[in-house]
Request: fold
Amino acid sequence: MGSRRTALVPRLSRRGGRLLLAVPFALIALVTVVDVLVPPDVHLGPFLIAAPAVTASFAGARMTAFVGAVAVVAQSVVAAARTTFTDLNHTYQIVALVLISVIATFFAHLRERDENRVTRLRSIAHAAQSVVLRPLPHRAGPLHIASVYLAAEEEMQMGGDLYAAARTASGTRLLIGDARGKGLDAISEASLVLGAFRVTARRAQELPELIGHLEAGVGSEEEARDPDGAGSGAGAAADDTDEAFVTALVLDIPDHEQVVRLVNRGHPPPLLLRDGEVIPLDSAEASPPLGLADIVSPEVTVETFPFGVGDVLLLYTDGVVEARDRTRAFYPLTERLTAWVGDDPPTLLGRLRADLRAYAGGHLGDDAALVAIERMPTEP
Reply:
C-alpha cells in the first residue's frame, strides 16, 4: 500500500504541473484570437505579459523563457494580421513583452535555485537524523516495542527528538528525549546524548550512573570548541541565553521483575495503559533537563512503578501534546488513549498517529516521537 501511494504522488504532481502549464498557453491562444478579431482601436496584446509572469510562479526558468518566447511570437502574429510587423504600437508591445519575459525568467531562476537549496538542506537533515535515530527493535526480552517518528510539516528543519533502546544482562533500558532547538544543531545535540546512551547503557550498573554519562554528553561539542569558556561581553551573553539542554526520560525494565524504574529529567511523564485506564507516571519531584547541572545540581531520583504482563507504556515527546486543532486547543492525549487501551503497540501507535494528524489538520507544529512498550509473558 505504501509503495503504491508513493508512486501515485509523482504522477499526481506531474498531472497538476501539466494542468498549470495549460493556463499560460490557453491565455496566449485566447488573447491572440480575440486581439485579431476585435476592432482596430482595441489592443489586448498587453495581456500577454501575464503568461510568462504566471509561469514564473510555478515553473522553472527554461519553461518561463519558452512561454515568454511563445507570447512574443503570438504578439508578432497579431501585429502582422492587424497592421504590419513594424507598426510602432505593436513594436513597443513586443519590446515590453520581451523585457517582462526576461525579468520573469530571472525570478523563476532565483525561485528554482532557492527551492533546490531548501530541498538539499532538508535531505541532509533527514539523512542525518535517519543515521542518528536508529529503529528500535520490535522485541527485547519480554517486551514488545513499537516506535513512530512524525516530522513537523510546518517546519523547514528537523527537530531533535530522540529515542533508543539497549539490552542489559538483566533487562532493557530505553531512552526518549527532545533536544532544544531545531535543525542540525538539535540533531547534533541529540546524537551526543544517543551516543552516550549507546556506549554506557549496557555498562552502567545503576540509572544514576547512566544519567551522569548522559549529562556529560550534553553540550560537550560546544565545550570542545571552547574549552576555556572564552568569550565576553555580548558574545558571552548570547552563549548564556543559548544554553543547550535535552529533556529526557530513562527507563530500566527488568526481564524477571514486573516493574519499571525510571528517571525523568524535565520530560512529559509516560502513560501506563492498564485495565481500561490511562495512568500518568508522574514524578514526585521535578528535575531539570539534562545539560543544566551547572545551574541546578539535582539529586538523581529513581522511581519505581508496577509494570505487569499485558500493561503498555506510552512514551512521547511534547510535539504530541502541543499539537493544536483549528481552535488552538491542545491535543487531549490521555482522553484519546482511553478508547485504545488493550491494543498492542503497533496498533496503538497506528491509531494514535492517524488521530493526531487528523486533529492537527494534517500539519504538526513540532516534531513528535512515540514509543509504545508492552510486557509479554516471560518465556519459561
